[in-house]
């Protein structure tokens, strides 16, 4: 679930105080962010103005489920069916970091 930004600029706001995600939140990509497959890199990337974030497989799987319909709890459950073990706290930390950077938005369940 590492985020590896490449490109001209990096977002300086890595955290916002008080930003957390709850099990009932329904995360979705912000309007200015796109998840797409990079043929050059042969992996999923997150496109943000002037930044390309290379995702590992787990990070891409999480973001594919961030469609505004799945709750955080449902995302964790779905990942549990795909992988042997899913550290719930790591998924929540990953989502919290993306919300703090304003790459994800959350709606209440």
From TrEMBL:
Gene3D superfamilies linked to this entry: Coenzyme PQQ synthesis protein D (PqqD)
Pfam family, one: PqqD
Alphabetically ordered keywords of this record: PQQ biosynthesis
One Gene Ontology molecular-function label: quinone binding
Top-level taxon of origin: Bacteria
Gene Ontology biological process terms, A to Z: pyrroloquinoline quinone biosynthetic process
Bias-annotated ranges (Low complexity): 1-15
Pathway recorded for this protein: Cofactor biosynthesis; pyrroloquinoline quinone biosynthesis
Span list, region Disordered: 1-25
Assembly: Monomer. Interacts with PqqE.
Protein's UniProt name: Pyrroloquinoline quinone biosynthesis peptide chaperone PqqD
Organism annotation: Streptomyces shenzhenensis
